[in-house]
Amino acid sequence: MNLKTILLAEDNQNDIDLTILALSDYHLANNIEVVNDGVEVMEYLRFQGRFKGRNPGSPAVVLLDLKMPRMDGIEVLKEIKNDPDLKHIPVVMLTSSKEESDLIQTYKLGVNAYVVKPVDFKQFMDAIKNLGAFWALLNELP
Amino acid sequence: MTIMKAKKLDYIDFEEVNTLLEGFNKTTGFVTAILDLEGNVLSTSGWRQICTEFHRINPECSKNCGISDTVLANKLGNGEKYHFYECLNGMVDVAVPIVINGEHIANLFSGQFFFDKPDLEFFKKQAKKYGFNEKKYLKALQLVPVVSREKVKAAMDFLLNMTQLISEITLKKLEQSQLNEALRKSEERSRNTLDNMLEGCQIIGFDLRYIYLNHTAEIHNRRPNEELMGKRFMDIWPGIENTEVFKSIKQVLEKKIPSHFENEFLYPDGSIGWFDLSIQPVPEGVFILSIDITDRKRQQEKLFESEFRFSKLYENGPFGMVMADKEFRFKKANPAFCLIMGYSEAELLKLTFKDISHPDDVSKNLIYIKKLNNKEISVYKTEKRYIRKDGHMIWGSLTVTATYDSEGQFLYNLGIIEDITRRKLAEEDLNKSKKLLAETEFIGRVGGWEFNIDTLEQTWTEEVYRIHEVDFSFNPNVDRGISFYSDESKPIIDDALKKMLKSGEPFDVELEIITAKGNRRKVHSIGKADFENRRVYGFFQDITERKEAEEKLRQSEERFSKMFNLGPVAKVLTKVSDRLFYDFNEAAELQFEINREDILGKSVDDFDFWLDPQKRIIIQDTLDKQGFIHGFEFQFKTAKGKTGWARGYSEVFEINGEEYSLNEYTDITEQKQIEAKIREKDQEFRKLSANVPDLIYQFTRRPDGSYYVPLASEGIRNIFGCSPEDVLNDFGPIARVIYPEDVERVIRDIEYSAEHLSYFTCEFRVQIPGRKIQWIYSTSTPERLPDGSVTWYGFNVDITNKKLAEEALNENSSRLELAMQIANMAWWEMDINTGNVTFDKRKVEMLGYSSENFKHYNDFTALIHPEDFDKAINAMKEHLGGLAVKYEVEYRILNSYGEYIWFYDIGAIVKIDMKGAALNVIGFVIDITWRKQAEDEIRLLNETLEQRVRERTAQLEASNRELESFSHSVSHDLRSPLRHINGFAEILSQQYSDQLPGDARKYLNTITTSAKKMGALIDDLLSLSKTGRAELQKALIEMNQVVVDALEQIKPSLKGRNIEWKISPLPEIQGDYNLLRLAWINLLDNAIKYTRNREDAAIQIGYKDDNNETIFFIQDNGVGFDMQYAQKLFGVFQRLHSSVQFEGTGIGLANVQRIISRHGGRTWAEAEIDKGAIFYFSIPK
Q1: Cα–Cα distance measured from residue B345 to residue A126, given in angstroms and rounded to the nearest whole number
Q2: Contact list, A95 vs chain B (CB under 8 Å)
Q3: Which of B116, B228, B507, B733 would be B726's cystine partner, CB 3.0–4.6 Å?
Q4: What are the sequence ranges of the domains in chain B?
């Protein structure tokens, strides 16, 4: 099976570790590309900066943290969904908060899923695994 | 201490001790020494050469010796019997303590020997060290004996015993010396005492010579001691051999038995002294102690004499004597007293003076007793009454003396009583008759006199003095007596006296005297001669008052007779007893046409003037019964047969015990004829006035003040509810119906009118039983009638309706006035033609002016603010010109303080003339300054309101934004670390669980749980903060749907639970769907959570319809809670169960309450422990 890349945008190393840990159960860990802020997400997607020479192809899904330095999740989402070349890429918003205003805004901007990172580790793992499985394994892009 | 010790050491005889110790040294070879505790050598014997020539010579070495001595001494100080010690110079020493009377005072040392053979090497070194000649030193060493320990001990025991012996001897010496000292001191003291004793002390030896005499003895002997000392007793006192004293002394000297007696001592000069003598045997001879008792003896003698005298008087004297204590209880009574009082002594001792005193005299005595007890007096005398045992009263003369002993202590009160009853009775009789005479004289104004015919010296009784108005110092004689008579009387009395002295003819004259004070008095003097006793005596009486009375009577009779005879009224006097005419005046002669002479002495039955004799008899009976009869009228006939009417007044009175009847007859014939005519006229008047509803009346006041209504129209029935006849003679029927409060006023007005003959007018109320109160208006004109009566003609009208209208009007206008006053309003009225105004004075008061200056419309308009002037004038013009329905304007007007205040002025035309032109405008003004100011403020506020709202909104928005971003970051930034804690802990426990010890896994678990709990807490807090901030989005929502949606949300918690749900159909309400759903979630969560322990959990949801709110409730059958804590339920973080029992953050219900209160509703709960809970919330309709 040719697994597509999962792009994880996350500035917090702990969360990165936990997410990778979760995804490794589905052996998706090797396909994870980690970036640390919104600017890097865009550079990755647009083959810019240090991602100029990366392997071609879009990631199966972008797991986007809401709060990030330089360019936050919502700005990234807006950019992706406004870019005709990129807007097909599924974006999942990962966030610590349950702020409804964020939820509503991200859905308005066309997010594909919105996941509140639960404090409960098991729930967190389950959520990430499901996400990974769904988007990376099952969801074939049209 | 040391002094004592030193002293004790003094008692040791060291010479003897030294001898002894030297002997010991020679026999045993032991050297000894006695040292005191400071180390001073007191005795030595046979000291070793090595010590005396070497050790104690070398300064350094000798230090060792000193150390040895003190060390040994200290050891002994600790109580050891004896002690061995190796000295620093290599020798053995021994010491024994010397203890005297338990006190360690010195030590006996021995030693300077060896127990074993000495170590030569040591001593050789010693010699070198201290520079001793070694040869000599070692030689001296050889002289030091080597003694066995047993031998040393035996020697020491001996020494011990010996020192003991020394000690005991010393002690004895010591004690002896102390004893001797004490003895000496004691003797000294005794001698001192004896010398200074107050008693006489003498010692006489066996040879009867004086050995000792003290100072007092010198006084007692009345001879200097030097004269006596060494002399023989009997040589000094010649003749003493035969006395008691001498015999006693001899006897004590011989038999050594002490003797004690009182003795009278005859001095050589013949004077006597009394002494109390104690004679004691003493080693030297006899000791005589003498106390001078001469004074005491003399006192005793005096007392004895006095007592003796007293007792004689007491037992046999004529006076009653008693001894009594301070309270006057009898302690002793003599036979005379018993006899006076009739009690035995035994009986008296149970009584006090009160028991035998006359009750009226007790208090007087108490005053004396008090003074006596307070020592203010020591004796008192009184005369008082006693009651004997047999009940008879007797008089006693009492003398009481308080008796004290020589120290001033009260002993007893001595009372001496003499029976003075007979004297007292005699005095009383005399007083009585004196008093009687004086009283009689005084009452009768009569006195007596007498004079001696030879001396002409006169004696007057008191009253005679008084009649003459001279005081009792006046010394009367015949000439002086005569000199008082007036000029007219003098010759008469002179003559009468002369006649009497000549022929013994008594006289009895009534004459006049001029008193010393110049008053004329009529006197009645009677005189009689008593030649046998050469005296003239008589009686003298003041008869002035009697004479005056006689004169008055005469005048009164004259007056009466004049009164009787004169005047127009017929007066007839008859005697009651025989009914004969007694007097008849001129008017009666005229009236009855008969001469006085013809009728006097005739019987009334013979001359009967009465037309109707029956009526006379009735009148006569009444007169006899009540003594008078007034105002009767009768028809009479004259002696000549003429008839007429008369009004009579008869009265019975007494003259000198004879009853007379005085009859007065007034001729009223003419009056009667007039009255008849009047009655005719009355009839006419009645006919005329019968149909007038008002009352036409004649009202009369009699001279005696009574009223009657001789004439009244039928209208009286309407006005006073009575008939004209009812009031013909009697005002009563009218007086009774006049309203009680008005009666006084009506009478006052009538009386005023009667007095001043002024027009009478009065309004008053009448209340006839069964009718409403009527107001009556009465008016009439008075006139005085010849007989003094006053009569009024007038009429009464019922003015009730008018009064009611008036009252109503008054009430209305006073209400209006009050209302205007409260509203600070004032009315005004303007005459349009003239512009003159009348107004409520409040109008100018409101402005602070006085009303005089305001008469015209222009006076007011002149004060109007220039800016408002035209507006005000035009408003009036428009209304007057018919352009405006009313005059209405608001303007500013200047008040007296120079401020403009606001008037609201409104008015309208109220009077129009025949042609339709306006005449009057009436209106009112209100001070609306306050309202205007309020309006200004409101306008100002309104103008700035929007701006302020904008500012406030901006502020609120800003703070809301801040809050939002704060909670946003809280939710992110707090949750992330929690998740990490939880995550890594989980990984640790999962992936490394086999490498972790049990405890570590448990801790990891705790970390995870806590982190989760904190996560929940953050979520709930955020939710709470959101519900507070979120804008309420109200819409009509179905509550059932909300509940269903909420249930959907909490589905996970229903897993594994068996709950019986009962959800009633719920109404639609206005509310925020999301918030209410959140509320229900919390409530449901709560109910589910707390029914967790129930097998058959049941949750019911329903509602109640209240007046203006809908009350929803959710009831469970869970664990419930204690209602005591109900008010805590809805507070943030307030929990009623521990999180071990039931997890939770304590925020859920707080959130519910916040949501409900944002809807304007209330939240509350009811519960009971283990019986479930009901939570209510209300939403307003």
Answers
A1: 135
A2: 972
A3: B733
A4: 2-179, 197-296, 317-419, 446-548, 566-666, 671-804, 824-927, 1030-1180
Number of H helices and E strands in chain A, helices first, is 5, 5
pLDDT digits (tens, 9 = 90+) for B426-435: 887 778 777 7
Query: CA of A121, closest CA in chain B: separation in Å?
Result: 5
Averaged confidence pLDDT in chain B: 83
Number of structural domains found in chain A: 1
pTM summary value: 0.30
Query: Selecting from 3.30.1450.10, 3.20.20.70, 3.40.30.20, 3.30.450.20, what CATH number does the domain B197-296 have?
Result: 3.30.450.20
Flag if A124 and B1022 touch (Cβ within 8 Å). no
pLDDT at B871 over 90: yes
CA distance B834 to B857: 9
Q: CA A18 to CA A1: how far, in whole Å?
A: 25
Task: Tell me the nearest-neighbour CA distance from B1121 into chain A, angstroms.
Answer: 31
Q: Searching chain A, which residue's CA lies closest to the CA of residue B979?
A: A119
Asked if A95 and B984 come within 8 Å (Cβ–Cβ), the reply is: no
| A14/B975 Cβ within 8 A | no
Chain centre distance of CA B453: 83
Reported ipTM: 0.71
Give the chain A residue whose CA is nearest to the CA of B985.
A121
How far apart CA B1101 and CA B1082 sit, in angstroms, is: 14
Strand order in the sheet with B285-292: B210-213, B200-205, B285-292, B272-282, B259-266
CATH of domain B446-548: 3.30.450.20
Element (H, E) at B107: strand B103-113
Q: Could you tell me the fold of the domain covering B566-666?
A: Beta-Lactamase (3.30.450)
Length of chain A: 142
Q: Do B971 and A99 touch (CB under 8 A)?
A: yes
The CATH-assigned architecture of domain B671-804 is 2-Layer Sandwich (3.30)
Given this structure, which CATH class describes domain B317-419?
alpha beta
| Residue B4 binned pLDDT confidence (cut-offs 50, 70, 90) | very low
Tokens 């990030």, residue? Answer: A68
Query: Residue B312 and residue B316: Cα distance in Å, rounded?
Result: 6
- Kindly report the backbone phi and psi dihedral angles of residue B772, in degrees, each rounded to the nearest multiple of 5, phi listed first: -75, 165
Q: What are phi and psi of B1104, to 5 degrees?
A: -130, 145
Give the contacts of B298 (CB within 8 A, at least 6 positions apart): none
Read off the pLDDT of residues B690-740 as tens digits, 9 standing for 90 and up.
777 888 888 999 888 889 898 888 888 888 989 888 888 888 889 889 998
Which CATH superfamily groups domain B824-927? PAS domain (3.30.450.20)
Closest-CA residue in chain B for A121?
A: B983
- Phi-psi region for residue B610, left (φ > 0), alpha (ψ -120 to 50) or beta? beta
Say if the Cβ atoms of B979 and A119 lie within 8 Å: yes
Domain that holds residue A107: 6-138
Side-chain-side CA neighbours of B1137 within 13 Å: the count stands at 15
Q: Are B983 and A96 in contact (CB < 8 Å)?
A: no
Number of A to B CB contacts under 8 A, please give it: 66
Mutate one of A14, A97, A106, A115 to test the B interface: name it (highest B CB count within 10 A).
Answer: A97
Residues on chain A touching B966 (C-beta within 8 angstroms): none
Q: Do A14 and B968 touch (CB under 8 A)?
A: no
Two domains, one topology: B671-804 and B824-927? yes
Q: How far is B1023 from chain A (nearest CA, A)?
A: 9
Is A1 part of a structural domain of the chain?
no
B2-179: what fold? Beta-Lactamase (3.30.450)
Query: Can you give the CATH number for the domain in which A105 is found?
Result: 3.40.50.2300
In a domain, A75, yes or no: yes
Count helices and strands (H / E) in chain B. 37, 42
